[in-house]
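Check this:
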Amino acid sequence: MPYLPIFLFAAIYAAAMLAWDLPWLVGGAYLMSSATCFVAYALDKSAARNGNWRTPERSLLLLGLVGGWPGALLAQQWLRHKTVKRSFRQLFWCTVVANVAGFVWLSSRLGH
C-alpha cells in the first residue's frame, strides 16, 4: 500500500488533464521534481551512513511540497530513509496533502 498515494495522484492528474486540458509540461515538472527529491533523499541517506553533513529536513520537506513528494515516497520505501521519525512523517504527509490540494486548485484555475 505504500505506492497507493502515487497511483491516486496519477488518477487525479489524469482527470485534471481531461477536465482542464493541462499541458504535459506540468507532468514533466512533477517528474523532474520527483527525481530531484529522490536524489536529495539518497544523498542524505549516504551522508547519514558516513557521518557527513546532512540535508536539513526542512529542505527535504520543501522539495516534496513543490512537487517532489512522489520521488520522496519512493526514496522512503526503496532506501528505507526517513521512515522512522514520526514528526517528519507527519509533516511529510501534510506537504503531500498541501501539494495535491494546490495542484487541483491551480489546475482548475488554469483550465478556465
